[in-house]
Amino acid sequence: MNIIKTRLHCPYCGKSFDLELEERTYEDDLLEECPMCGNSIEIHLQLDQEGKVSKAEVHQLDGDADE
Ligand SMILES: [Zn+2]
Predict the structure, then answer these.
(1) What pTM was estimated for this model as a whole?
(2) Who surrounds ion ligand 1 at CB < 5 A?
(3) In a domain, 65, yes or no
């Protein structure tokens, strides 16, 4: 089975971590917990034709536009 692996940066604590997914569990929007701080991270992935991650965006869940 093809495993998708990518490195993400937590939008809460700023630390990086590796995310691994089985290809068949891939969805456009993912919800993962940061392994460092435990906050829920919304992840948007784009895959290229080989099934590798071409773009990964992370967002905080609370949707608060205040910066
Ligand atoms: Zn974190």
Answers:
(1) 0.77
(2) 10, 12-13, 34, 36-37
(3) no
